[in-house]
From TrEMBL:
It holds the Pfam family DUF6593. The lineage of its organism: Eukaryota, Fungi, Dikarya, Basidiomycota, Agaricomycotina. This is DUF6593 domain-containing protein. Residues 64-182 form the DUF6593 domain. It comes from Coprinopsis cinerea (strain Okayama-7 / 130 / ATCC MYA-4618 / FGSC 9003). InterPro entries: DUF6593. Residues 1-32 are annotated as: Disordered.
Amino acid sequence: MHGTNPYAQAGWYNPQNPHTINNHPWGSSGNGNPGPSIFGALPYANQGQVPTVLTFHYVCLNPDVLNCTITGPTSIPYLEVATVMRNNISTTVFRKSDGRVLASIEWTRAPTVEIAGQTLSKRLVSQWMRSSPDRSQRGMNVNGRDFIWVSMPTGTCVFAHGDTKNALVKLHRGPQVITLELTTEAFNAGLLEASIVATVLIHSGRNFD
């Protein structure tokens, strides 16, 4: 059957043309230049060497990502993730080192997600991370911009709507650790919190569609 592919129009990755992905160096802005500095946005041991790619590790999986520690670019614990019972509902809570809750996921029959502040009000996970028909990709809106999570052989990548050349986020799993990498462009677009929460959802092993 021939015709227009609505997912290609919407910016979905086209597996028939995989070379449209990652034509530019990882961590660059597409023109070969590094992304803008986020000096001061996160703590660094040496603030004279702020990276253009921020790396977070999900470690101490107990027994999985629903109970773990997330370390930041300096390997210092950034968040604690714990799944507990709240009002008879299994809830995954993302808690900062000062005790404040960054986000929560309620594992009801139709799971919901909420991120503190104005990042994301409580809503269905299935609406926040919309699945493509073959479930290889998911659409997400953050701060009014559309992004696409694409499953690839080496892991998962995030692209801005309409741009399948420059990966903003990379996510991959090792034997005992899950690694999340964000370019400074992704950070400045407000993808940090959303990516941290989405990583747990993707690797939770639970159905949220």
